[in-house]
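Sample A.
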Amino acid sequence: MLKEPGPGRGRKPVEQVEFEVFYSIKSQPEPVTPLLERLIKQFRLRPDQAAKVLEMHSIEVINRQLYDIHTKASDGKVKNLGSYTAKVFGLETTKEKGK
């Protein structure tokens, strides 16, 4: 013996559902060039720093500076390779931001 719900009681059946979908096109990540990879892995720059170096300087200048940095690092004159590399290329380092 099921009773029908009285007026104002019970749930109404769903008759229609609408969805809105929003999406944004993700930009493709920059292709990793050998020089970008070298700046990140060998010279310990963050990816954003390495990309900025590539924007700011020509490939010839970058290679020349990296050679000089590598020479000093192998002589033991550089304590923090990433920080020194960033300084040579005129990037702001975390320590400088805190000052």
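Sample B, a different protein:
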Amino acid sequence: MTHHIFGPVISRRLGRSLGIDLIPFKTCSYNCAYCECGATTDLTSQRREFFPADEIIHQLDTVLSSSPKLDYITFAGSGEPTLSLPRSRAGTPEKKLRTI
């Protein structure tokens, strides 16, 4: 199983941030020489749903059940998070976060 939740990460700008990675490793619309993740292995501008929403929600529920001290939850990680299509059905990670 892919792990979509990481952190919390300490950031000077955001404080304690929990990350949600919606993209497979190095799936990106750019190939930046300065990227901390290295060279892009899947160069694409096609937006799609990369992972089932239920899988991400289950992992998020598991992490949040321990009531971690968080300042922010961010969509980030090992690729370009805006390539992940918004999901139209109820129960998406984005909608779930609004209730936290």
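Observation for Sample B: The CA atoms of residues 54 and 75 lie 16 Å apart.
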